[in-house]
Design goal:
With 221 residues, the protein is of the alpha/beta class. It is 42% helix and 16% strand. It contains eight helices and six strands; from the N terminus they run βααβαβααααβαββ. Strands 3-2-4-1-5-6 form a six-stranded mixed beta sheet, with helices on both faces. Helix 4 packs across helix 6. The radius of gyration is 17 Å and the shape is globular. It starts with a strand and ends with a strand.
C-alpha cells in the first residue's frame, strides 16, 4: 500500500511576525495564525480530504495548529501523535534572536560584504551555509549543523512511515526548515533554500518499498 503524506507548516506565530528565530523555543500562534489553521481545516472538509492518522512536532505552535486544523476539518477522531524529530532546527544560543541580526553577524564571520550578500549565498548553491555558519558561531555549542539536522529529519520521516503502516493518507504538522530538510533528503532539487509558507501543504508519497517521492511543495490550498 502506498502512503500519502501531507506536510503542513504551522500557523503564523508572534516570533514569525517579529522576525525572530524560533527553533526549539516557541511563541504562540497569532489570531491570524489560528484563523488560518481553522480555515485550512474547513477547506479540507469541503474537499472531502480525510486523514487516517496525524502527527505533529512537539512544539506547542505545531500542536495547536494540528488540533485546530483537525477540529475544523471535522476529524477530531483522527489519532494525533507527537514527534520530537519533527521539531524545527535548534539554533542554540541564537534562539529568539532577530533573523536579520543573525544574518549580519554570520555575514561578517563568513567574510560577506553584508547581510544581503549572505542571504543571496544561502539561497544559491551553498544551501547549508546558514545552518553550518550558525552552528559554528553558537556560543552555547548547541545549534544543529546541516548534517545533524538532515539525519534527524530523515529518521523522523522513517519513524512516521513505520507508525503509519496500513494508512493511506496522513497529516504531519511541522516547521519551515524541517519541511525543507525532509524534501531535500528525498529530492535535493525539489525546493530552493527557502522556507515554505505558513499553513502551506507539501505532499509526499511512499511506495510499498518505503521509497518516497515529492509530489508538491509549499502549496496554499
Amino acid at each position: 500500500m502506498t502512503l500519502e503524506l501531507w506536510l503542513v507548516r504551522h500557523g503564523k506565530t508572534v516570533f514569525n511576525t517579529l522576525g525572530r528565530l524560533q527553533g526549539w523555543s516557541d511563541s504562540p500562534l497569532t489570531p491570524e495564525g489560528c484563523a488560518a489553521a481553522a480555515d485550512l481545516g474547513m477547506r479540507l472538509a469541503a474537499s472531502g480530504t480525510r486523514f487516517d492518522a496525524a502527527f505533529a512536532s512537539t512544539a506547542p505552535r505545531a500542536v495547536k495548529t494540528a488540533r485546530l486544523l483537525l477540529s475544523h476539518a471535522g476529524q477530531e477522531d483522527v489519532p494525533l501523535r507527537f514527534s520530537d524529530g519533527l521539531r524545527e532546527c535548534c539554533f542554540g544560543g541564537f534562539e529568539g534572536e532577530y533573523v536579520q541580526t543573525l544574518y549580519a553577524l554570520l555575514a561578517e564571520r563568513q567574510g560577506y560584504a553584508d547581510a544581503q550578500a549572505f542571504q543571496t549565498a544561502i539561497r544559491g548553491a551553498d544551501r547549508f551555509l546558514f545552518l553550518d555558519a550558525a552552528a559554528q558561531a553558537d556560543p552555547l555549542a548547541l545549534a544543529e549543523d546541516h548534517e545533524r539536522f538532515a539525519a534527524r529529519t530523515a529518521a523522523a520521516l522513517e519513524e512516521l512511515r513505520r507508525a503509519a503502516r496500513g494508512c493511506r493518507r496522513v497529516l504531519a504538522v511541522a516547521h519551515g526548515m524541517t519541511i525543507t530538510a525532509i524534501l531535500k533528503n528525498i529530492d535535493p532539487a525539489a525546493t530552493e533554500y527557502r522556507s515554505v509558507p505558513n499553513l502551506s501543504v507539501s505532499r509526499l508519497r511512499s511506495d510499498e518499498n518505503g521509497v518516497w517521492r515529492v509530489e508538491s511543495v509549499g502549496q496554499t490550498l
